[in-house]
Design goal:
The protein is built from 15 helices and 5 strands. By secondary structure, it is α/β, with parallel strands linked by helices.
Length: about 325
């Protein structure tokens, strides 16, 4: 697992390589949203720290240490995660790290600890503080967190911070195809942008049959909302939203992307910016045939966002969705 196996994150990989070329230090914090690849990067760096012949490109992948790491049995590697999904207990910190760091490395090199800081409470952080402040020379502590604010300032100030960048659409494409996702997937162009640069989100959605199907249905209903009879909207179309009530935020997200695409076309923007590129022809036809103007589409987009806000405030679901559908019918009326 050299750094070359990590797609994207070029600046971060250069920084890590530079660290390996000199004195790496003892404490590293990797931050980014869920699914950004923090653990993947931290593990690659941890492997390089344990490698017997590392380079600026990371671990060699061939030495005994690398083979043991790949097999999950390296004696000087510890991964501290929540065992019940609720949090890392302070006893885990004291047993797995604080008491362990004073012991010599079994392979004569470094001892490396990976900590999921998003599940580390204040007590756990306090228990770890002295080790981070005064680590034994052979110890490296790697932490992952959604952001530095998840940790006490006294800890963050003693760590080298490596924030992960969001992946580009092309990087996401390479990640998805490398994971076995077909480039022929109709929704792929949409996923590459909808994932907002987060590989984990793109991978999850690309393999989620429900999401792929429900996106198609939302887009179909948005394409015809302007020509639907009022009664049909308030029964059949509302019924669809009601059946997927628990995922209303996702449905409104997709609906919002469709209105956004209509507005892009109406404004003369480049078609390559469309999120729903697999619906390009239908979107172009709809805008040209109905001569939508930007003001109409702005109101339609605002209506979707208003509905989202209302639902977060626990307003009546039926009232909110029916009002939205009627507003969309008005703004997206077919000529």
């Amino acid at each position: 697992m050299s750094f070359s196996t990590i797609i994207g994150q070029e600046q971060l990989k250069r920084r890590l390589g530079t660290s390996l070329a000199g004195d790496p230090g003892h404490a590293f914090l990797f931050t980014g949203p869920t699914g950004a690849g923090k653990t993947l990067v931290a593990r690659a760096f941890g492997k390089a720290l344990l490698c017997q012949t590392p380079s600026e490109a990371g671990a060699c992948g061939q030495c005994v240490a690398c083979r043991l790491f790949d097999e999950g049995v390296h004696p000087d590697w510890r991964s501290l995660v929540s065992k019940d999904g609720k949090g890392i207990r302070v006893e885990q910190v004291r047993t797995d790290i604080v008491a362990d760091v004073s012991l010599y490395s079994q392979m004569g090199g470094r001892k490396v600890y990976l900590v999921d800081a998003d599940h580390l409470n204040e007590q756990g952080q306090n228990a770890l503080l002295k080790t981070i402040e005064e680590p034994p020379p052979h110890v490296c502590i790697l932490m992952t967190a959604s952001g530095p604010e998840r940790l006490a300032g006294t800890i963050v100030s003693r760590m080298a911070h490596f924030p992960l960048a969001r992946s580009t659409p092309e990087e996401l494409r390479r990640i998805l195809t490398g994971a076995g996702i077909s480039e022929e997937l109709p929704a792929l162009p949409f996923l590459l942008r909808y994932a907002r640069g987060i590989p984990g989100v793109a991978l999850e959605l690309a393999t989620d049959t429900w999401f792929i199907q429900v996106r198609e249905e939302v887009l179909d209903r948005m394409a015809s909302v302007g020509e639907k009879d009022r009664a049909v909207l308030l029964t059949e179309t509302y019924g669809f939203f009601n059946r997927e009530k628990d995922h209303a935020d996702t449905l409104l997200d997709v609906a919002g992307t469709y209105v956004r695409d209509l507005a892009l076309v109406a404004s003369g923007a480049r078609e390559t910016l469309l999120l729903n590129a697999d619906r390009r022809g239908a979107i172009l036809d709809l805008v040209r045939r109905n001569r939508y103007d930007i003001a109409q589409l702005d109101r339609a987009g605002a209506a979707v966002q208003h509905a989202r806000r209302c639902l977060t405030l626990n307003t009546n679901f039926e009232t909110t969705i029916c009002s939205l559908l009627l507003q969309l019918r008005k703004e997206l009326a077919h000529a």
